[in-house]
Specification:
The protein is α/β, with parallel strands linked by helices. About 25% of the residues lie in helices and about 25% in strands. Strands 1, 2, 3, 4, 5, 6, 7, 8, 9, 10 and 11 form an 11-stranded mixed β-sheet that branches.
Amino acid sequence: MKSVLVLIMGLCVAGCGDKPTASQPPLVSDIKDDETVVFFNTSGWLDEEENVWQLPIHGWIYEPEDSTARKAAFRVVLEEQFDLTTAQNQENNLTERLNLLIADNERGKTIVIRIGDRVIALPKSAENGHFQETISLSVEDVEKNADDGIVRFSAVTEAGEERAFKGQIRLDTPTGLSVISDIDDTVKISHVTDKRRLMEQTFLRDFEAASGMSQLYQVLADSGVAFHYVSSSPWQLYQPLDEFLEQSGFPWATFSLKAVRFRDETLLSLFKKGTETKPKAITAILDRYPNRQFILVGDSGEQDPEVYAKLLRERPNQVIRVLIRNVTQEKSDNQRFMDLFAELDQGRWQLFDHPKGIVGYVTH
């Protein structure tokens, strides 16, 4: 059973009637003027036994920060540890991305959302400012509120609030084809294996799309394929990443990123191995859609081949293909790949230099 949710029928918000008692749910979100809310893209699944849609809500409430002192300290780290200096045309990138990492996470906040004519109070935000819940809606309610396979919702805010905080949930059918994709060095040039260049690409330079990948993904999306990004990038960079991917022509996708706090040692987990961060997130998606089939797309720079080969063996009926973008100038008959994919059908995996070289890839 899901945790208990308060479902308030009707559209009454603050200012209409008596104030709620301690036992009643809040009718508006607890968002101050200096705080903001981001809802992350998610995907719902159909519970066929109960004939209801399960719709995951995941968001982050935080207070933006713009600390001159912290920015100066970070510049010192870039210069002394990575021999990087900030050019004038990189200032905006550094400010935006660093400010997101040092944002003040808001704990204990209740966000209230509206889906159609239902108003739902979500569980309070955690220490990292994130709040999550999976709500159940009947097939009929979802059909009334879905538009082109997407359910849209928004935070209920105080009267007079000019800002709008909106989210989207894609409805993924029980059967079909999905892609689970890495981000760094798979669809975005990051140079993860070179820490200096990684820091430069992450904080200073404009994000750069990997050649041909948006076209490949759009071809697949046009044929009905659903997309999920599973990446070691931090949740704080969700907005600039999502905007970059959309502007670069990549299709709509859900995200599963990594929790990182700037103030503690977990910032170092920006450099953790993929074998420590990705399997759990990918397995959760596979478990959620047991009758869908999946293509796993990653790169050769770190551990994507190792993670994906293991999943290909463990889930042969779900994982039908593995595609590895070659960023290390390796060959498919190198010992690494021969060992990883030994005794597996050669058609189930491919190392590629450019998407046009993928077997079976046909452009429009």
